[in-house]
Design goal:
The chain is α/β, with parallel strands linked by helices. The chain folds into 2 domains: 232 residues, TIM Barrel (Alpha-Beta Barrel); 53 residues, Arc Repressor Mutant, subunit A. 35% of the residues lie in helices and 19% in strands. It has an 8-stranded mixed sheet with strand order 1-2-5-6-7-8-9-10, with helices on one face. A hairpin with a 3-residue loop joins strand 1 and strand 2. Helix 8 packs across helix 10. The longest helix is centred in the N-terminal third of the chain and has 14 residues. It starts with a strand and ends with a strand. Bound molecules: iron/sulfur cluster.
Length: 304
């Protein structure tokens, strides 16, 4: 099959049949963490890459014989699906002929465009990405077409709030890029204002397009979730082998220092391993021995 992949059991969308509408690694971004590989054609203009009838025919043939369960038909794949000019016709075809829900996974870069919004108005779930709220980090991390500014991404994200689709916003954290205190604070403000139906936290898994893209720890994601405090947040990273060798020195240092003065997270991260820091902070918070303030200072809860 040329366009269909799966069905696969996906953590986010249950049993999902994928439709890939884009030639291999044709994308408006070249994210350093991309699991598919480096972008070979970086474009922002929409095109009809394939014959529409051929795509419809493949879908028809597959679904005619398929007897299994299907939660979603997902438009995703090896590039940015909204770059396909025939996206609207394919969505209409799916909605008019089949009972399945349709999901769209997108990097959000073209959601500012009227024609894209028109095309996706019947979609049931949109999974857009937003990895950073800082333009300089955005250009390094997502390596977009230079004309696709972060402001356009944000404009697009607010546009889709007017559609009927549920929005499962995804943020992927990369060590040393968007895992700063400033970024976490910006996300808190943004997420509490934007209110997605779900905020999905993720990090680098499998093999990234650029070897230097490294994952953050599960403990960091847990910290972000708790700090932002948005109820509809889900961590989509379950490390199999991320075991924590407990370093009691980190906890001791936090407790003793916080008794004397507020402690800055940056200071801790310069002294100890990142996993150890976030593990200890999460644990001490759960035990109610410390609190993390809005400006990311660690303070003791013990009365003097
Ligand atoms: S937007 Fe998606 S397909 Fe494009 S480079 Fe980034 S991760 Fe890869």
């Amino acid at each position: 099959m040329k366009y269909i992949f799966g069905p696969v059991k996906s953590r986010r969308l249950g049993i999902s049949l994928g439709i890939d509408l884009i030639p291999y690694k044709t994308c408006s971004f070249d994210c350093i963490y991309c699991e598919v590989g480096k972008t070979t054609l970086k474009i922002k203009e929409r095109q009809s890459f394939f014959k529409l009838e051929e795509i419809k025919q493949e879908i028809e043939e597959f679904l005619k014989n398929y007897r299994g369960k299907l939660d979603y038909i997902t438009l995703a794949g090896s590039g940015e699906p909204t770059l396909n000019k025939n996206l609207g016709e394919i969505i209409d075809f799916l909605k008019e002929n089949y009972p399945y829900k349709v999901a769209l996974i997108t990097n959000s870069s073209l959601l500012y465009k009227e024609d894209v919004l028109k095309d996706i108005e019947k979609v049931d779930i949109i999974v857009p990405s937003l990895d950073t709220l800082t333009p300089s980090i955005y250009f390094k991390l997502n390596q977009p077409d230079p004309e696709l500014s972060l402001d356009l991404i944000l404009e697009g994200l607010y546009n889709i709030k007017n559609l009927k689709a549920k929005i499962f916003l995804e943020t992927l954290f990369v060590k040393g890029y968007n895992d700063t205190q400033e970024e976490i604070q910006k996300f808190k403000e943004f997420i509490l204002n934007y209110q997605p139906d779900e905020w999905q936290l993720n990090t680098v898994v499998r093999f990234p397009a650029y070897k230097f893209a490294k994952p953050v720890s599960y403990y960091f994601l847990k910290f972000v979730k708790d700090f932002v405090g948005y109820k509809k947040t889900k961590i989509y990273y379950y490390p199999n082998k991320e075991t924590q060798k407990i370093n009691l020195d980190v906890e001791k240092y936090i407790l003793e220092t916080a008794k004397r003065r507020p402690l800055d997270l940056k200071e801790l991260l310069s002294l100890f391993d990142e996993k150890q820091v976030y593990y200890a902070v999460n644990k001490l918070k759960t035990l109610k021995k410390i609190e993390v303030t809005d400006n990311l200072q660690i303070v003791t809860t013990e009365k003097r």
